[in-house]
Backbone:
């Protein structure tokens, strides 16, 4: 018997007026996998994230999270998702712990339960010793780690990250990428939107998105074949961004 995927996107389309941002997108994310949603600027990655988090809705297609239909059963589906958006959403003038507590409260958690969940989430990202620091005092990499910890407070099955390394230096980028790969190795299902091929490991699943369409889903090693993933990606997408086309 096959297991229900962590995330299944079936024939999803979305248009902004006359512009078709997503066109019949289908893919599945197996549980405990790191899956890169790889696409150049304008491919539709953020649009897809907006649909997965119900910031946008579409009548065309279907999205299921751990078997729960996002349109029919949004509470159950959304409860199983943790999200790190492209734009940071932290209160810089309060401590890491207060930020985390606020978020726990949004999920209906308080008191000891909240503390235990927050501690565990910070621990997973090696951020526990920073709990008392003001967010403003943290560097970009630590702020991102904190946002990832925050997205894990309610123990989601699927973690969505939209270009989470934007604006980080090379060392912080590498560290965040490694941390999230570790989370997948521990059993979390991860969808990581990026246009940066070097964030992807050979065994990762990759969904190549270009101009709103899925060009391919396979492991990075399969897509790279005898060559490099970057060459295969450039060949598939023509090497130019939608914005520049
Ligand atoms: N609110 C909007 N109104 C009209 N068109 C939009 C809107 N948002 C996005 N688009 C267009 O839809 C397409 C997909 O955009 P989207 O932001 O989802 O891509 P992306 O892969 O996330 O790119 P980026 O990496 O630049 O964020 C692009 O052509 C973009 O110009």
Residues:
């Amino acid at each position: 018997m096959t297991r229900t995927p962590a995330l299944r996107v079936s024939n999803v389309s979305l248009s902004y007026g006359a512009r078709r941002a997503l066109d019949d997108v289908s893919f599945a994310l197996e549980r405990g996998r790191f899956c890169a949603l790889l696409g150049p600027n304008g491919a539709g990655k953020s649009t897809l994230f907006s649909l997965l988090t119900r910031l946008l809705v579409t009548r065309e297609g279907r999205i299921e999270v751990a078997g729960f239909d996002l349109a029919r059963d949004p509470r159950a589906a959304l409860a199983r998702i943790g999200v790190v958006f492209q734009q940071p959403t932290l209160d810089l003038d309060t401590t890491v712990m207060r930020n985390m507590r606020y978020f726990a409260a949004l999920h209906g958690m308080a008191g000891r339960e909240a503390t235990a969940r927050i501690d565990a989430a910070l621990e997973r990202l090696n951020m526990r010793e920073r709990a008392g620091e003001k967010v403003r005092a943290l560097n970009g990499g630590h702020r991102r780690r904190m946002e990832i910890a925050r997205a894990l407070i309610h123990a989601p099955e699927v973690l969505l990250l939209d270009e989470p390394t934007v604006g980080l230096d090379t060392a912080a980028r590498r560290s965040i990428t490694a941390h999230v790969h570790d989370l997948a190795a521990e059993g979390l299902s991860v969808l990581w939107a990026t246009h940066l091929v070097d964030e992807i490991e050979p065994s990762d699943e990759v969904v190549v998105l270009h101009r709103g369409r899925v060009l391919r889903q396979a492991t990075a090693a399969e897509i790279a074949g005898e060559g490099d993933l970057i060459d295969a990606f450039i060949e598939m997408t023509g090497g130019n961004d939608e914005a520049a086309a």
Notes: The chain is about 35% helix and 25% strand.
